[in-house]
């Protein structure tokens, strides 16, 4: 799925769609008509007028079209113009009242609905939103992973937290899962990496923002690609095609390996955070002239971990070895701090 963050003018919509359609690489054209902006006085979308342009895209380029809906009125308007795919934005998935209102407006309607993850990392909200739409009788459902908001400033606009969509797919295996690297990364620089990762995790597709002139876009300038840049990006993604005989086996293996990679990444993130705390302890001990090694405290840590490890299916030898290495690294960090002037 590709298209601009927002529909802005008829020309921008038609020209973006023309170039994307000509590439033959895009299955659905997306454009935001009503934009959920964090602060007022930003461009809040062109509104219903833009639906007419999308209807024209559909007719002229034979491309299904998708818009974001957040209220009952949006649903009725979009359906009136024959929009093929409705997507629910992250700020809406989070709100059960809004989800129920949309579900009620969709009763008895045959349209595809794709639900973005909620802005906070709460899988039950995502599942609840899917259930509400499913209960309204919608058969064509999908999920879009766009990452999760956090208070800390991070390089990416939203944190992927890959394990959440992986769990979603385990719990609801039969709906397509697609990745939106544009809103996840928030910048062009992350698009390839995130797209590749999602393909390695066996996602079913991508939603990427594309605009004929990103620099002049009225929303999300930094993350939009020109149509030709989008095609270049798609060409760089490696789709790991397993050989036909063993395709299921290889697919599953690839997916499991990618999951291992995710866990390793998380392990290192956690170790990094742990070392930062060790640094603070080092500084604190230095201020109060306390020695680095306090062996009673260390014994406590080891004993507690060894006691618990049986429940986790880990051997005491393994736990001791890992802890020993972590402890040594912590001491090295603290020594460095103690010896700084
Ligand atoms: C969008 O797709 O334009 C959008 C607003 O996304 P999100 O709901 O992921 O922020
Ligand atoms: Mn956007």
Task: Walk me through the structure.
It is a single chain. With 341 residues, the chain is of the alpha/beta class. It contains 13 helices and 9 strands. The protein has helices at 10-23, 49-61, 72-80, 90-93, 96-105, 123-135, 163-171, 181-185, 191-200, 227-236, 247-287, 295-309, 316-338; strands at 2-3, 29-30, 65-68, 85-88, 112-116, 141-145, 177-179, 205-206, 208-209. The strands form 2 sheets. It has a 7-stranded parallel sheet. It has a two-stranded parallel ribbon with strand order 1-9. Strand 2 (29-30), helix 2 and strand 3 (65-68) form a beta-alpha-beta unit. Helix 5 runs parallel beside helix 6 and helix 11 (247-287) packs across helix 13. It is elongated and about 75 Å long. 33% of the residues are buried. The mean pLDDT is 92. Manganese (II) ion binds at residues 5, 183, 209, 219-220.
